[in-house]
Amino acid sequence: MRQIPDGFTKMKNTYGFSKITNTDLYSKTSTSKDDYPEFAVCFNSQHENLGGSIHGGVLLTYIDHVSAMAIFHTLEPQARIVTIQLNSNFISRGKSGFYIVAKPKIVRRTPSLIFMECNLYLNNKIILSSSGIWKVLWTN
C-alpha cells in the first residue's frame, strides 16, 4: 500500500463512505475559505473490475460523495442536498493500491442548485473528470 499523500489526514466521519466501500477516506483542508477540501482514498483489489482497473461505478460513488462533502463545506451542517445530475469522462484507469485524489469545486450556485466539477488524480495525472448538479432541499 502506498504512503498517504502529504497533508492528508484520516477522516473520522465519512458519512457512510467507509462503510459502503470498506476503505478509509482522507481529507486535506485548505486554510483559505475560498478553497475546497481535497480527498484521497486507496482502493484495493475488491474494487477492481474484470480488467484489473478500479470499477467505474466505484469511482463515480467516490466523486458523488466527495462533491457533496465539498458542498457541505460551504453550507451549514444541517443542509440537505441530493444529486440530480452527474456527468463523467473516464480518461485513464484507476489502479488498486494507489491513492486517488479528488479535487472538487463549486463553479456556480443559485439559491436551490449547486453546479460542481470534480477531477480524480492518480500520481498527479487526471483519470476522471466530472460535472454535476446538486439540489439544495433545505438549509437552516
Global shape:
globular
Strand segment count: 7
Please estimate the helix content: 10-25%
Contiguous runs where pLDDT drops below 50 for at least 5 residues: none
Order of helices and strands: EHEEHEEEE
CATH class: Alpha Beta
User: β content, as a range?
Assistant: 35-45%
Provide the residue-averaged pLDDT.
91
Distance between the termini: 42 Å
What's the arrangement of strands in the largest beta sheet?
Answer: 1-2-3-5-6-7-4
Classified in CATH, the superfamily is Hotdog Thioesterase
Structural class: alpha+beta
Largest β-sheet summary: 7 strands, antiparallel
Structure description:
The protein is α+β, with helices and mostly antiparallel strands and 140 residues long. It has a single domain, classed as Hotdog Thioesterase (Thiol Ester Dehydrase, Chain A, Roll), CATH 3.10.129.10. Helix content is 17%, strand content 41%. It is built from two helices and seven strands.
